[in-house]
Amino acid sequence: MPAEERHHHHHAAAAEESHPHRPLVLERADKPPPQNFKTLLCKHAKSHCSCTPQKVRSKILGFIPILRWLPRYQLRDWILGDLMSGLIVGILLVPQSIAYSLLASQDPIYGLYTSFFASFIYAILGTSRHTSVGIFAVLCLLMGQVVERELALAGYPPELSSSSSSSRVNTSSDLFSELIANSSAGAVCDRSCYAITVGATVTFTAGVYQVLMGIFQVGFVSVYLSDSLLSGFATGASLTILTSQIKYLLGLRIPRAQGWFTLFKTWAAIFSHLGQTNICDLVTSLVCLAVLIPTKEINDRFKSKLKAPIPFELFVVIIATVASHFGHFNTEYDSGVAGTIPTGFMPPQLPLWSLIPNIAVDAFSIAIVGFAITVSLSEMFAKKHGYTVDANQEMYAIGFCNILPAFFRCFTTSAALTKTLVKESTGCQTQVSGLVSALVLLLVLLVIAPLFYSLQKCVLAVIIVVNLRGALRKFLDIPQLWRVNRIDAGIWLVTMTTSALVNTELGLLVGVLVSAFCVLARTQRTPVQQLGRASDREHYEVCANYLDLQTHNGAPVFRYTSPIYYANQSLFKKSLYKSVGLDPVREKAARLKESKKKLAAEAKGSRKDDKEKAATVNLMMEANPKASCLVLDCSGVQFVDTAGVNALKEVRKDYAEVGVSVVLAQCNANVRDALERGGFSAGNQPNDTGFFTIDDAVDFAQNLPVSNGNHEV
């Protein structure tokens, strides 16, 4: 080494000795003084209750978004795409609205009402430019289950034949009086009338739930319904929907199964009545399936080349209706048909208030599913096209899409993925396309609807089944999902299985609980891991994950990457003791036991045994005399509660009793505040709640005197 370099090195070493390592010390910023509840309440009330012209205008524009974007509408650039997408979606909605009425246990006219009002109201109140709101298969299934249950409780017989819809038996006098008061002209409310009354009441209640959630700003609840949970729920419900439509494909007249395990009950009923299959319905179903499945695949495969999807469903409905009408399928072969579909609108009626206690829980689950689907689709397409949506305004929009139409005999709606994709792919720019779709449906309601009298129910069932392809294809994604994340795959499988095999609503609840349990389990199964330092810089990583990391024998460093709270504090201590290789509680008990043996040996005068046993008292300290301090990296600890603070206190106290100090490093500000409030004080450390860097903590630990229990070495 050259003399000049040796001289420089000598001066650097001397400077290092004269200036010892100083740990990083940061001064906390002053916190704003805490405000009492009265002050906060007054401030909140003042900000929300003050009335200025600007604030009134902002509130109105925020609540009715169409007033904000319609004056800025770029007519030349957007009108063609909106007209095209609105027309195509409106044409697709006609057969689907009629078909999904079957799934919701309603007459076809009510499906057309529902799609019309939902398209119109969401165009006014919604914040998404591309979302298509209308009938959604899963919600129709949930609605149909509630309607069939209430029909049975009210004494209406199952709809086994066309004559059953006009019968009414065993209905309580109070309920019957209320139904007559609600129905137009005081007419007797038959099965169909009571079915839509139940459906409208459920829809109204679900809408009230959604608006209340918007008022209380709880739009964030959608984040707790993960994609795997919603996908599993939709797939499980799709299996139930598929099963419920088999009876229509075969022309069987069997009642809808109620309660739990409806999938098994329905298949058992189908097999027991298989000999009663209507050949006309079966042949029609097979022909329609043979046409729609390949044509749907053609639409999907060439959607990038087609300017708009070809409405094969509408073609099938028209051809099947004409064939059924001229072939007299209803009278000659006893094939079930849609029946009379009136034109125009019926006068509004109130929901059945006395029914709300019976359906309140069902309406809540429907409200949650409808909102979650709508918000997730809205945010997905908004992100794709570079704009934002307001989750709480979406809650208002979908809520009023249920509340207002409920007075006009409609049932529950939400965003629908298939129609939203069609809307986007056909050039939709704004919700003007939704208004165009509403106009198409209005034309059908006023003029065309009666022409579907002879449309067979089996054709409607085929349309429902064919549209389940997307959800059923999720089964093909299970291997990929399992490889990517087994926890998400497990949530998907549990939710799907419960929804399909046990109960649809229960599947959603089980999925939420399993998701919450998985999050909780992740915080409880987090291990404490030893860290090593990179050779050329001040960076620490887990020794088990990377090679060539240097560990500090005198001050081993460990990391914990979960919150420390009441549910995992005992598991945190066990994991720490296991990683360190020393359980201070057991060590202390062993020392106490040896101490008692020593006293007993001294009392007997057995000096030889005393020396041999005393040699094992400090076994750990002699085996690793340099491990006098542990450094715990808390950078991954998001928060600690009272139990967590007490756990850290116990860890430090227990290790101190066996001669090992515990030093914390890299605690965030919230953890430091919790430690200060909990009385955690290191006493001899420059920072009472730990060091800001691991190197500072290690340097401090290596300079501590080695102790043996309560005695320094």
From TrEMBL:
Region of interest (Disordered), residue spans: 1-28
Protein name: STAS domain-containing protein
Membrane protein topology class: Multi-pass membrane protein
Ranges for domain STAS: 545-701
Annotated TM spans: 78-103, 193-216, 228-250, 310-330, 350-375, 396-418, 438-468, 489-517
Subcellular location: Membrane
Matches recorded under CDD domains: STAS_SulP_like_sulfate_transporter
Primary subcellular site in the record, as a coarse category: membrane
Domain of life: Eukaryota
Coiled coil: none
Source species: Knipowitschia caucasica
Record's keyword annotation contains Disulfide bond: no
Pfam families: STAS (PF01740), Sulfate_transp (PF00916)
